Task: inverse folding
């Protein structure tokens, strides 16, 4: 009835909504700091644009080519507009790449730990995942990745900055790596969190002009604060971009999403201000963790992955939840991931951690 590759897969089970969790725990307030959402929201221009649209032509299909959004992104990154493909979140882009490139028996390299959807979609296509451990600093080990390449390798994933560790690789390092990878292997760099590095030259989108086997992913869910709207895109060259467009379903972005993403992208000032706030708060988190004796990886994202050394991460997770703050656990034993929130929430969580450790 179904292909063998999916018979052993467990369905995704979403966490309870905030309202459900508040009711379950008897809480009046619950702040989610577990999903790497943008605590500062999105540009006020988004609401204005949506109000102006006001459901006009809602009975018609959307612009399948997302022309306006396509043109402003192409201009911003100095790339040709036909090198872009949009998806209903990066989830759809990851699915499309796996569907177009992978066949049963192929091998896919990914770092460990990293974003779980890379492995999921490889498994669905019948490919084999070969996970490569991070180096001692928690960064993706490109030398180990190179050594792991075999005659069966078809795809390599690099999440940069990496989720859940938050660690970052310089563009020059990625360029050297891609240059050593055979052209028959597709290298995919997921830059979902790249805006939070604070460096204007940290992206490798420009390298897609040099390497035809390089694909770079970006999303509107993080720095642009549009997680609910599900808009992501990939940049790559022919012939891959043509195959992806052939497989992509038409009208995969709603006009609602296109209008929101266009308005958000045009307001780069808001994005820059948001990133500055998050970097400032991230530094405060780093100082707190150092003072508290809690090891962590250097983060270039809107989250920090830290170890509850000498303590119980699950117990701390539950303690914070009972006090109205939800962090992410279960990614690695004795480790928690905290999304950088607003100052008042960051300070509240830090005080709670201090109290927990003092017990």
Result:
């Amino acid at each position: 009835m179904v292909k063998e590759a999916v018979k052993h897969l467990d369905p995704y089970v979403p966490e309870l909504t905030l309202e459900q969790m508040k009711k379950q725990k008897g809480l009046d307030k619950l702040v989610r700091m577990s999903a790497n959402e943008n605590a500062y929201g999105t540009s006020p221009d988004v609401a204005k644009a949506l109000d102006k649209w006001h459901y006009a032509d809602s009975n018609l299909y959307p612009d399948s080519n997302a022309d306006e959004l396509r043109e402003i992104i192409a201009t911003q990154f100095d790339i040709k507009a036909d090198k872009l493909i949009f998806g209903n979140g990066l989830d759809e882009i990851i699915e499309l790449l796996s569907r177009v490139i992978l066949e049963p028996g192929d091998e896919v390299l990914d770092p460990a730990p990293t974003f779980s959807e890379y492995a999921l979609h490889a498994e669905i296509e019948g490919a084999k995942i070969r996970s490569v451990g991070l180096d001692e600093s928690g960064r993706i080990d490109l030398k180990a990745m190179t050594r792991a390449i075999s005659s069966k390798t078809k795809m390599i994933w690099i999440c940069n900055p990496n989720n859940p560790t938050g660690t970052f690789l310089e563009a020059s390092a990625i360029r050297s790596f891609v240059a050593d990878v055979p052209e028959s292997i597709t290298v995919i760099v997921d830059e979902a969190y790249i805006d939070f590095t604070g460096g204007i030259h940290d992206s490798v989108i420009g390298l897609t002009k040099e390497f035809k086997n390089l694909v770079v992913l970006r999303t509107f869910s993080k720095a642009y604060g549009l997680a609910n709207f599900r808009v992501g895109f990939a940049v790559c060259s022919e012939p891959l971009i043509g195959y992806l467009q052939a497989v992509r379903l038409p009208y995969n972005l709603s006009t609602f999403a296109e209008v929101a993403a266009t308005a958000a992208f045009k307001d780069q000032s808001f994005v820059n201000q948001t990133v500055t706030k998050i970097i400032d708060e991230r530094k405060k988190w780093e100082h707190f963790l150092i003072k508290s004796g809690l090891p962590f990886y250097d983060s270039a994202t809107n989250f920090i992955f830290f170890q509850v050394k000498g303590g119980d991460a699950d117990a701390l997770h539950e303690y914070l939840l009972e006090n109205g703050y939800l962090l992410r656990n279960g990614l690695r034993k004795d480790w928690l991931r905290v999304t950088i929130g607003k100052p008042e929430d960051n300070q509240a969580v830090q005080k709670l951690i201090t109290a927990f450790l003092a017990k």
